[in-house]
Amino acid sequence: xxxxxxxxxxxxxxxxxxxxxxxxxxxxxxxxxxxxxxxxxxxxxxxxxxxxxxxxxxxxxxxxxxxxxxxxxxxxxxxxxxxxxxxxxxxxxxxxxxxxxxxxxxxxxxxxxxxxxxxxxxxxxxxxxxxxxxxxxxxxxxxxxxxxxxxxxxxxxxxxxxxxxxxxxxxxxxxxxxxxxxxxxxxxxxxxxxxxxxxxxxxxxxxxxxxxxxxxxx
Length: 218
Prior knowledge:
Layout: H1 14-41, H2 44-49, H3 55-62, H4 65-84, H5 94-111, H6 113-124, H7 136-157, H8 166-182, H9 184-190, H10 198-216
Helix pairs in contact: 1-4, 1-6, 3-4, 4-7, 5-7, 5-8, 5-10, 7-8, 8-10
């Protein structure tokens, strides 16, 4: 099979490039639609109206509304796991590596509230579609293994205490970072503090990092 021509940035050009651009445009719009309305509330007609694609083209690329939803989930989880499993942290001291994991996770959740809403919607569906995402468990294992390696280096260096379950650590990090996005409106109204204000956000980010590091410290 002939390869698609590539431009100077290494992207496919011609029909293959246009097809990929259309596919990504559909995913961008569908991500916001599913995040805002969930699987049941989102409409393919509305997604098509907001893209350069027709309804028929969306079905051609993704098969069904459920297929499009799963593709959106897959891309969202792939992106966050790439942040979680950044392999450059092996060059950092274990305490610095852990702080970097927590900070990057906090930042990603804040910058991508649509990811938080997608996760919330999928849990409302009781995880009906997460099992259809190829490689999801393998990507999750890599995240846990990175934390396991950081903890092991920290125990060896005297930074961290022994006996911390890396999956429990991952869940704690996720919970603290997730909450600031998932509950931002109710907390901001109920406690009269805008948790998205830059100074408030920066303080909360530091607190979350400190909380996690303190829990792990020897």
